[in-house]
């Protein structure tokens, strides 16, 4: 494993903060040099930011087992980086179990512990990564908006979506005195959800 120059600075920051930090707050407190980032002579801000992000996440995932040996769980997410003491009272621990056991963590950990992902990152790979992120982000955003149009909540199953659509389509159909704009809005929301959620 490559030695990450930010292991000690990040460990020191986490130990000195009683409250959780966001990744943004952590990044602001670290001093990155060109030699740390190993950037090519011509590079974009996106590549520089990705490498800063990677160094932080790599350090955090390397620190996680170290803190575990000391009796702490290190919660790692972009919005919340926090040390949780395993020796808390049972009530506090039960409240935190959902945070401590995060599904899908292993794949993310493996990615950030693979130093090749840092050294082989370039303009093109970072651009591809960002594009795929925004596509997922907007797809999620559109899905939530479509569910809201149908008066449904996130996580609603497909049979409920289909049933709700039929109810609203019947209620707002222009042939039954409904407004055509509202009917089209309902149909478009359903069609979007059908593309995203409908079982094969």
How would you explain this protein's 3D organization?
- The relative contact order is 0.09.
- This protein has 2 domains: 7-121, no CATH class; 136-197, Orthogonal Bundle (Helix Hairpins), CATH 1.10.287.110.
- The chain starts with 6 loop residues before the first helix and ends with a helix.
- It is built from 10 helices and 2 strands.
- Residues 89-103 have low confidence and may be disordered.
- A hairpin with a 4-residue loop joins strand 1 (72-76) and strand 2.
- It has 200 residues and is mainly alpha-helical.
- Helix content is 65%, strand content 5%.
Briefly characterize the structure.
The protein is mainly alpha-helical. 65% of the residues lie in helices and 5% in strands.
Taking strands numbered 1, 2, ... along the chain, how are they ordered across the largest sheet? Answer: 1-2
If you compute it from the alpha carbons, what radius of gyration comes out, rounded to the nearest whole angstrom?
23 Å
Structural class: mainly alpha
> What is the share of helical residues?
55-70%
Low-confidence stretches: 89-103
Beta-sheet strand percentage? 5-15%
- How many domains is the backbone divided into? 2
């Amino acid at each position: 494993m490559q030695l990450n120059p930010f292991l000690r600075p990040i460990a020191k920051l986490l130990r000195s903060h009683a409250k959780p930090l966001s990744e943004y707050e952590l990044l602001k407190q670290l001093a990155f040099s060109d030699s740390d980032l190993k950037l090519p002579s011509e590079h974009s801000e996106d590549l520089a930011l990705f490498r800063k992000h990677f160094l932080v996440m790599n350090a955090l995932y390397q620190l996680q087992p170290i803190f575990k040996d000391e009796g702490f769980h290190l919660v790692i997410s972009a919005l919340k980086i926090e040390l949780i003491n395993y020796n808390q009272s049972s009530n506090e621990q039960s409240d935190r179990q959902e945070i401590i056991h995060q599904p899908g963590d292993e794949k993310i950990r493996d990615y950030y512990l693979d130093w090749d992902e840092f050294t082989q990152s370039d303009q093109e790979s970072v651009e591809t990564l960002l594009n795929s992120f925004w596509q997922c982000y907007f797809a999620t955003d559109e899905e939530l908006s479509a569910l809201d149009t149908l008066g449904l909540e996130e996580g609603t199953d497909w049979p409920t979506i289909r049933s709700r659509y039929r109810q609203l389509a019947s209620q707002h159909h222009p042939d039954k005195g409904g407004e055509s704009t509202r009917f089209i809005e309902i149909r478009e929301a359903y069609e979007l959800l059908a593309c995203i959620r409908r079982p094969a």
